[in-house]
Every structure is written in C-alpha cells, then in structure tokens.
Amino acid sequence: METFDTIVSTRRSVRKYQAKKVDRELIAQCVEAARMAPSAENVQPWRFIVIDDEAVKHEFCKSAFSGIYSYMKWAEKAPVIVVLVAKLDMLANRIGKQIQGTNYYLLDMGISGEHFVLKAHELGLGSCWIGWFHAKKTRKFFKLPSGHKAVSLISMGYPEKPVTRERELRQLDEILYFNEYR
User: Fold this and answer.
1) Does domain 3-160 bear CATH number 3.30.450.20?
2) DSSP 3-state assignment of 55?
C-alpha cells in the first residue's frame, strides 16, 4: 500500500471546479469511506447532507454564505456541497466534554471528513473543507432536529486544473518531540 505517497501527500484544497456533474455513486463511495472512521464510544455521530441540485444549492448558499460569511460564495460554483452534521450523543459528547474538556464529536467529525476528502482525491475529485459558514442558518435551512449540529461543509467536484501546487509545511524537527516538549 502506498496510501501516503499517492493520496495523503498529494491532496490539496480545491476551490475552482469544472462545471461537470459528479456521479452520485462516487459521492456514495466517499461517504462509505467516511463511515469507516473511528469515533469515541463508537457513536458514529456523522450524517451527510449532499447538495447536488443547482436550485437547492443556490438557495442554500444564499443563506449559509450571507453577511460575514459572503467570502465563501465561491463554493456555490462547486457541483456538490456536503453538509457534515453531528448527531450529539449524551455519553461521548456531553459527559466526556465535562470530564475531559474535549468535544469528541468534533474529533470524530474531523476524522470522518478526512476519510471523505481522501477518498474524493483518490477518485480524481477535488474538495475543500469549509468551516466559515452560517451554522444557524444551515440548521434552519435543513430543519435539523434537536441534538444535531452542522459542523462543517465540504465542496466537491472535478478540479478546474490539475492539482499540483506545492505548499510549504513546517519541518519535522519543528513539530516532533520525544519524551518532552521544547
């Protein structure tokens, strides 16, 4: 397996897409990869709302990217927007947060979402995590029930041009410590 060299190290955020529809079977493969993610207490909090209808996407983007979130309007040009919704669990998410001070559902959703974008990249699709959106309007738009929270979005489609741009990363010796933190 060469997952790191072929997928992890070459994936980049894509913000410009071809005007080409993404087959729902490919989207389902990404969700299947996301479904395989580990989660605290195995609660599997993830739910995925796929927006691939142009009219729905337009209305959603008018709401989710309004006001201070208008910078993200570029996402409407993506053929697909996926809303990552967490179904909050009493034990792992409320008690765990009180004891540990950690929102485990956010970790779970992050791992699941990363599985999603890596699978998309493997399938030749580009994607971009979006955390800057109007969460309350998203909740209202989809009429999310109590105990459910929209935590992020992922835009997805075929990249407008090949994804080859290198990015600058911190050196390993700047982030790796053994047995102490310096």
Assistant:
1) no
2) helix
**11: Cβ–Cβ under 8 A, 6 or more apart, which residues?**
117, 118, 121, 163
Phi and psi, residue 60, nearest 5°: -60, -45
Q: How far apart are the first and last CA of the chain?
A: 34
Q: Domain extents for the chain?
A: 3-160
Tell me 92's DSSP state: I
φ and ψ at residue 44, rounded to 5 degrees: 45, 65
182 residues of the chain, pLDDT tens digit each:
566 667 777 788 889 999 999 999 999 999 999 999 999 889 999 999 999 999 999 999 999 999 999 999 999 999 999 999 999 876 666 777 777 778 889 999 999 999 999 999 999 999 999 999 999 999 999 999 999 999 999 999 999 988 776 778 899 999 999 999 98
Collapsed DSSP state (helix, strand, coil) of residue 47: strand
CB 17 within 8 A of CB 67: no
